[in-house]
């Protein structure tokens, strides 16, 4: 498929089941390749509800940011676990530095905090993460199903996943994802 994009999805154990399953399925149904990336290729990760299990296709040491068009960060306990590993934090930072599309839901923006990329940004997240984000100077937090800011798409919770997935697919169709986002002001 000519318009097919390659999506990096960083995930660890304890992800919110639907927050990986729903966008993963919608992206694949639209013809995009979703590569599941964790600490080690071949490991199996399980959702915190125990409904979903995925086998990691690549380890974080086996991938390069330039090989992907977009980064997907599901929520649950996974982002907090991943941000304890500097390799994942750096991966997120490099995606943002290059202006590549990043979609994060629920606890996903915890990786933005650890990457130090929040200055001047507007986003949403799970309720408790919204509180954490409001404590950071020069960050705008909205309580909305989807918030777009430059190369970011953020959402709050499983109830928002249809809107979140639709926003991702819209942005992947646009020039924003393939050319990188224009410089932030």
Q: Which architecture per CATH? A: 3-Layer(aba) Sandwich
CATH topology: Rossmann fold
Main pleated-sheet profile:
7 strands, mixed
Q: Give the number of domains.
A: 1
Report the top-level CATH class.
Alpha Beta
**Strand/helix succession:** EHEEEEEHHEHEHEEEHH
User: Number of helix segments?
Assistant: 7
The chain-level structural class is alpha/beta
List keywords for this structure.
185 residues; alpha/beta; Rossmann fold; 7 helices; 34% helix; disordered C terminus
Reconstruct the topology from this structure:
Layout: E1 6-10, H1 17-29, E2 33-38, E3 44-46, E4 53-55, E5 58-59, E6 70-73, H2 78-82, H3 86-97, E7 101-105, H4 110-115, E8 122-123, H5 127-134, E9 140-141, E10 147-149, E11 152-155, H6 161-173, H7 175-179
Parallel strand pairs: 1-2, 1-6, 2-5, 6-7, 7-11, 8-9
Antiparallel strand pairs: 3-4, 10-11
Task: Please tell me about this protein's structure.
The protein has 185 residues and is of the alpha/beta class. It has a single domain, classed as Rossmann fold (3-Layer(aba) Sandwich), CATH 3.40.50.880. The protein contains 7 helices and 11 strands. The strands form 3 sheets. The chain has a 7-stranded mixed beta sheet, with helices on both faces. The chain has a two-stranded antiparallel sheet with strand order 3-4. Helix 1 packs parallel to helix 6. The longest helix has 13 residues. The chain is globular, with a radius of gyration of 15 Å. 44% of the residues are buried. The C terminus is likely disordered.
């Amino acid at each position: 498929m000519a318009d097919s994009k390659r999506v990096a999805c960083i995930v660890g154990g304890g992800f919110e089941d639907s927050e990986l399953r729903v966008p993963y399925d919608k992206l694949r149904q639209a013809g995009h390749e979703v590569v599941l990336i964790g600490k080690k290729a071949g490991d199996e990760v399980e959702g915190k509800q125990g409904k979903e299990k995925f086998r990691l296709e690549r380890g974080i040491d086996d991938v390069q940011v330039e090989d992907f068009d977009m980064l997907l960060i599901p929520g649950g306990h996974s982002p907090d676990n991943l941000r304890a590993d500097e390799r994942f934090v750096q991966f997120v930072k490099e995606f943002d530095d290059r202006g590549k599309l990043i979609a994060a839901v629920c606890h996903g923006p915890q990786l933005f905090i650890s990457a130090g990329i929040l200055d001047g940004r507007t986003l949403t997240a799970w309720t408790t993460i919204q509180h954490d984000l409001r404590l950071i100077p020069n960050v705008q937090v909205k309580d909305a199903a989807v918030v777009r800011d430059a190369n970011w798409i953020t959402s709050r919770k499983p109830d928002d996943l249809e809107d979140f997935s639709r926003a991702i697919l819209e942005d992947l169709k646009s020039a924003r994802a393939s050319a990188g986002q224009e410089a932030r002001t």
